[in-house]
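Known limitations

Files may contain more than one protein. Parsers should not assume a single record per file. Below, a two-record file is shown to illustrate correct handling: read the sequence, read the token line, then continue until end of file.
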Amino acid sequence: MKKTKLAVFLLVAPFVLMSLIFFVVGIIKKTEVDNFLKTAEKVEARICDIDTYTVRGRKGRNKTSHKVYVDYIVDGIIYDHILLDSYNSSMSVGKKIVIYYNPEFPKQIKSGDTSGSTIMLVASAVTMVISVIISGVLIKKRLERKKLMTEGTAYTGRIINVRESVSYGKKPRYFYQADCEVINPITQERFVVSSEKVNDDIRVLVGMPIVVYMNNGDPPKHFADVESAMVRYEETRAGRYQLKR
């Protein structure tokens, strides 16, 4: 049941991937606009039409989008009903705005708005920060666990209960958490501690022994080694299977 590293990777990887996607798309959009504006010319245009339509988004939610069309004059030639590359809430039919056009191909126009690429770059930074925070929290937990296993006291306890919880998303995810009874052999003091939540169904471990590492100076700081308990269970089951054969 060596899945800890895989679980950490699966938790952090989507945020890192999203961050990279946002960053790449943001850079591409910004570079495209910047390169266009280097040789573009300004001209005043009039918004002649705004086409509002609905698209189906995630989870079946509808999203309203807009297409903006403008007309303008370049070198005495009228360019009518040309699609603009962006929309914002201040736009309305009949409003005059400044646009940028390609002198060689005047039908190629842009609003010069770089807010889309800025949003992408900000989203990239936010998702990267989230991934760093999650990684930091997980690394801290692993270091605390390692410290308990090397400096704490190892007690052999017993799993008395396993609790199941569900996280609902596109597909329900089930988590399992063991309640472990630990008795100090010297003081006979009894503790009931909980393990970390795991994805594997560990209900078969109820009643079985488990090693719990505890900080004697601060008993709430503990680590119940469910992973090793599950490995022992699987090894025992495999041994029984071999004997039966």
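...continuing to the second record:
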Amino acid sequence: METRAEEVLALGRLSSGFLYLVAAWAATTAGAVGAALALILSAHAAADTGAGRTLPGVRELASAALPFIALLVAGAAAAIYAVACRIRPAMRALARVDGSFGVCHAGTAIWLIGTGIFALGAAALAAAALSAETGLAPGPQPLSLLLGTLALAAIGGVVAVVGHVMTFAVGAFRLHGRYGNSLYMAAGILYAVDLALLLLGLGGVLTLVGHVLMRIALRDTVKRLQSSTLS
């Protein structure tokens, strides 16, 4: 009975984690699209003012996109919270019930490490761009910094993708194998297809749909387990 109660609690926590991920996806997407549009419109407006007006610099463009960048950062923070404080503890608890979830628990750690490396690379890239704009880094240093930060962000991205597969795609198939809800299988397939699309620069939407399906399936599983426990 204690094992079943622990399992239900873990699934409920996992369900809440996917709810946070859906909100995080919406915030990061809105922030990224808004920032891109702000940058394009700012540069376009500057170009339309006449030949005597130079294009805006990095700091001016960053100011125009600042509200959307803040929204993007908030979404990223929500995603990190979802994985670190909801999904990871839930996978650890499920691994105690069913050892096959151990790979999913390990995947959350890999995802967090990769995301941290990517964020560090992105922050360093922004710092390199600002230093090049202000002239604080003389000589060829800005180019070397740019290449180094791009490499760091790329490494973090690859590590995060590996963790994503282990946590979400494998996790969805493990949940389907244990609880039999076909929505888990559908979510796992969507995660896999979206990963392939990501390599083509088209990914993102199917992962959102997968998160929604996981949330629905987990709530259904929790209700069924609670009903069977009461009966």
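Parsers that stop after the first record will miss the second one. For reference, the second record is described as follows. Residues 2-230 form one domain.
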